[in-house]
Amino acid sequence: MIQSLIGWLELLMKSAEQFEAVNPGRSAFNILAYVNHDVACGFADLRETVTGYFYAEGGGRYATMVHLAEGRLREPKRKIDAILWFEAKEQRMVAAMVNYDDPIREQQVRTLLNLPRK
User: Fold this and answer.
1) Contact 76/12 with Cβ under 8 angstroms?
2) What pTM value is reported for the model?
3) Rounded to 5, what percent of the chain is helix, strand, coil?
4) How many other CB atoms sit within 10 Å of the CB of residue 40?
């Protein structure tokens, strides 16, 4: 888990830096697509890192890494409009997270990606 956490932190921070370098005014959407080849890691791990919460199957939400999600990752994750999760084995997108900081931008991203509206 620690190795995954370090990997997610590095990926998200590096992605935010790259988006800032090529799209500083955010005139286009910053969409990160991740293709997972790791059978021991899943979308739930990424979601927990980004949100700081573990989401249980029964619907419960438990704070696990809020200090990272709202600390070190707070500003970098604001520069990413959406994260798309693809499973290599299934050869398809299986999950997505959309940044909800700007409700208008969020709905535009959801429309572009044909994701359900909130």
Assistant:
1) yes
2) 0.90
3) 40, 20, 35
4) 8
